[in-house]
Amino acid sequence: MNVPVPQTYLGRPVPEHIAAGWRTWDGAAWRQMAYRSTNRLNPPDQRFSVLPPGGMCVPHLEMRRGYRDMHFNPVSGDRWPGVPGSPFTIVGPDLSAAREWRRAEWDERASEQMRAIEEMCLSGRSSQCGEARTCEGCRLLACRCGQ
Fold it and tell me: Is the dihedral of CA 22, 2, 119, 100 positive or negative?
């Protein structure tokens, strides 16, 4: 898949091996590291920038999409997985920092779940896998690349 990759990210040159995997978890981890190296704590959400790997079945793609689409609610401030009754209620003078930390926690845990679903599906050990799988080349169910 041809995805435009910037030559620099936050002022840092993008290494060739990262540019090749820009829309993978490795690329997302590099972008988070680059963000943190600017002395900012909570990097932006990377879940939407990572494409699912080729070879995934439809049920697991839907599960992955469900975690990708989970978002922190800044109004309630609930911790992962979004149920009320958090033992740590946000109080104090700097509510925005606490909310931003919880948002980053949500992003991180949802990303972990997405990676776990990918690994389970591609391992071949899941009884939930269906017959239809995405193409290894174009990552679409209706293959357009001929692989």
Answer: positive
